[in-house]
Design goal:
2 domains; Ribonuclease iii, N-terminal Endonuclease Domain, Chain A; three-stranded antiparallel β-sheet; mainly alpha
């Protein structure tokens, strides 16, 4: 790993995210993985924590404003999709983030950097932009990067139907199909609340609620996907 070259090339990354840091040391900190043994630079984990929260807020605000027909469950599922690790990896690869990460040799393999590192460093980078500027500037950067994913054309059935995604995953893992059972129906006739249980072989059963049986099952599938992924 050519550390000096990494530092020299950070202006290329700044152009890719359309933001120039006032304090370059914050940018370097966000790109320095914990595997890199150099005490002169603190690691990126605190910035990752911050970036994760900022990303979640920006995406929540964006889809709340754009998709007026979405109910709470739809918003939650789409939000989870947009901030999950695999999506962050897509964004990280879009800006060739792997070319700028400072890491120890132990983290590199013939397949390149692990997806978890790409995702974590991207969140750290978002946290660094927020720390170096403000929320509105960070929001603009995030929306520029996620713009292609936050639109009607991108939505597909599986994005808002976690039951389909969960079924595909269980089949690929050669497990039995997910088992949904209605546990209770509470509330008044005009405003019921359904509680369902969901079981997948090899995982702990979970409970979820919803205004309809279908919504409760979708919410349960969303929870189970978080466990499996």
């Amino acid at each position: 790993m050519n550390f000096k070259k990494q530092i020299q090339d950070i202006d290329v990354l700044e152009k890719k995210i359309d933001y120039s840091f006032n304090d370059k040391s914050i940018l370097i900190q966000s790109l320095t993985h914990t595997s890199f043994d150099n005490n002169k630079f603190s690691n990126m984990e605190r910035l990752e924590f911050l970036g994760d929260r900022v990303l979640g807020l920006v995406i929540s605000e964006a889809i709340f404003s754009k998709f007026n027909s979405f109910n709470e469950g739809d918003l939650s599922r789409y939000h989870n999709y947009l901030v999950q690790r695999s999506t962050c990896v897509i964004i990280a690869k879009k800006i060739n983030l792997n070319n700028f990460i400072i890491f120890g040799k132990s983290e590199f393999s013939k397949d390149g950097l692990k997806d978890s590192i790409l995702s974590n460093i991207l969140e750290s980078l978002i946290g660094a932009v927020f720390e170096d500027s403000n929320y509105e500037t960070t929001k603009r950067m995030v929306l520029n990067l996620w713009n292609d994913l936050i639109n009607d054309e991108f939505l597909d059935q599986n994005t808002l139907n976690p039951k389909s995604e969960l079924q595909e995953i269980t089949l690929s893992l050669k497990k039995d199909l997910p088992d949904y059972k209605t546990v209770s129906v509470d509330g008044k006739d005009h405003n019921p609340e359904f509680t369902v249980s969901l079981s997948v072989k090899g995982y702990k059963s979970i409970l979820a609620k919803g205004k309809t049986k279908q919504d409760a099952e979708k919410n349960a599938a969303t929870k189970m996907l978080k466990l499996i992924k």
